Amino acid sequence: MDKDLGLLLLVDDNPDDFEAILRSLRKSHFMNPIQWCQSGQDAKDFLYKTGKYSEHEHLKRPVLALVDLNMPGVDGRQLLRELKTDPKMCSIPIVVLTTSSDPQDIESCYALGAASYIQKPVEFDDLANAFKILKDYWFNVALLPSIDGYD
Amino acid sequence: METRELQLETVLDSVKDGFFMTNKSGEILSFNYSATQIFGYEKHEVIGQNISLLLPDSEQQKYAQYLLDVTNSTFGEQESKDYGVGIEMIALNKGGNTFPLELAISVLPSNDIVLGTVRDISERKQAELSIKSYVEHIETIMDTVLDGLITIDMRGVIHGFNAAAESIFGFRAREVIGRNVKMLMPEPFQSEHDSYLDNYHTTGDKKIIGIGREITGRRKNGYLFPMELGVNEMTVQGKTMFVGTVRDISERKAAEIAIDSYIRKLQISNSELDQFAYIASHDLKEPLRGLANNALFLEEDHADSLEGEGLRRIARIRFLCTRMEKLVDSLLYYSRLGRQDLAVEEVDLNELIDSVAELTLPEETTQSVHLLIPKVLPKVTCDKPRVSELFRNLISNAVKYNNSARKEIEIGVKSCVNPHSNVLEQQVFYVKDNGIGIEGRFFEDIFRIFKRLNEEDDSVRGTGVGLTFVKKIVERHNGQIWVESELEQGSCFNFTLKLGE
User: Fold this and answer.
1) Is Kinase tagged as a keyword (chain B) (predicted)?
2) 3.30.450.20, 3.30.300.30, 2.60.40.10, 3.40.50.720: which CATH number matches B130-250?
3) Given CB 3.0 to 4.6 Å as the disulfide criterion, which of A7, A95, A151, B111 pairs with A60?
C-alpha cells in the first residue's frame, strides 16, 4: 500500500451499498486505501483506537470520511456532531452520503459542519458516475488535511 | 212617604251596590235600584216578601247561619257591625237562575233591622274561572313539553315541576315542590347555589340567567348526569321568579364522546398509515437497490460462464427491480400526497391547462389529438402543482386509452348532481374523451392503487396509480370525483375542487 495515499473512511451499515461504492471507486481507478466501518460506534473506535482497534498500532488518520446518515446505534448525525466538536477530529472533511433528501437533514448536516451532502443515486450507473466525480474533486482538485500529527 | 224617607231612598238608589233592609224575621223593608237590577225584580215585587225569595233552597241555611253570626258578634260588642266582612254565596234571580253574589250584612241592635249590601260577582267569577282554566291549560302544555321545566322563587324554593322534569330527575312534583332546588344539584353547586342567588339579588350579576349552559344534575337515585340548563327571570305578581329549562343530554354527550374518540382513532390510524407507507417504502428501497446491484455485478463479473439463459434471467431480475422501484416510488409519492401541506393559491385554470397540455399531448404528427375547451374556465383556489398533476393524469389517460382515429378531449365546467351526495353542484369540472370507455362494474376499482384494467406491454405498462393520485388530489381539495362512461363510447371524469369554499 502506498504510504503517500490518504486513507478514505467509509461508514455505512449496508454491505450492499458498501460493495456498490467500492465497485464504483474501483471503476474510476481509485487506488487509496479504504477503511470500512459498519456503524458510527465502529468508526469512533477506529478513530480513537478503542474497542476492537485498541490493540492496533500505526492506524492511519483518514483524510476524508464518507458517512451514511441512517445507521443503528450511533447514527451519522451523531457521529458528525461528535467529530466536529472534537478539536482533534474536526479537521477531517466529512461527506454525508445518504438516501434521504429531506431538506431538514440537509440543513442540519451542513450546520453541523458537513463538507458536502450527497444523495445516494439509485441506479448503479449514476452511483458510479457520482463517485468518479467525488474522487476527482476530493483527491485531484481539493487539498486535504495532512495525514501527520495522528498517532 | 215622609220627606226624610224619600231622601234616603233617593240616596240608596244612587248607590252602585245593591242594598236591602229586612226586619228580624226576614221581611224585606227596602230594596234599592241596584238591587232590582241584580235580582230582576221590581221594588214592589219584593217589598214585604221574605228574603228567602232571593236564595235557592241550598243556600237558605248558609244565610241563616251568617245572619246568626253577625247578630251574635254585634250584640256581644253592643255596636253596629260594619259589613266589611262579607261572604260569597249563590243567589236566585226572578228568572229562576242562580248567580254568584257577594253579601255583607249588619244588624242594627236598636230596632232589629238587618242591612245588606249585595254585589253580583258573576263576571269576577267568570274571570277567575277562565284564569283557572288558563292555568290548567298552561300546566297541561308544560307537562307535554319534552324539556323539564322548573320554577323557583328568589330563595330557590321550587314552585313548579313538570312531567318531563319528573322523568329527568326521578322525583315526583309533590316530592320537590316547596323544597329548595339545591336538591337537584351535586356538590359544589349545591352548597354554592344560595350564594349565586344572593349574589344576583344584591349585584344583579348573572351567572346563568339568560345564558344556556351545560351543567351536572343529580337524580333522585344520586346519579349525576350532564344536562343543558337555560334560566329565565320573570315577575309574577311583583315577585321575582326563575324558570329553568332542563334537558338531559347524557345520550348526546355519550354520542359526542364516541364520535370524538372515533375521529381521534381515525386520525391516528390515517397518520400511522401515511407514516407506514413512507417508512415502508423507504426501507423497501434499500434491499431492492442491493438486489438490483447484485444482479448487475453478477452479470459484470460472470457474463462468460452464465451464457444466454442465465443472462436473460439476470436481465429479467433487473427489469423487475426497476418495476418494483417504480411501485415503491408511487407508494412514497402517494403517502406524501396525503401528508404534505398544500400550497394554496388562486389559479387560472385556463393557463394551467395550457401548460399541462403542452407537456402532455403527443406531437400532432404522430397522433391526431384535439383538445376542446368550450368556454373559459374559472379561477380556482388550489395547489397548482397538484392540480396540474391531476389534469396531466386525466389528459394522458384520455389519450392513452383511446383507439379513435381522431382523439377528442373536452375539458370544461358544468353544474350537475354529485352522485356521492345527491346534491346539485354548481361547479363541476370534467375531462371527457372518446376513448375505449370503462365498464360500469369498474367505476370504483379504477381509483384503487395499483389496479389496472388493461393488459399492456411491459414497455408501455403503467403502475396503475394515476387515478389514485387524481382521487387523492381531489380529496385533498375537499372535492369528490366520479366517472360516467360506456364501453367504446368514451369516458367523462367529473370532479369538484372546494378548497375555496
Assistant:
1) yes
2) 3.30.450.20
3) A7
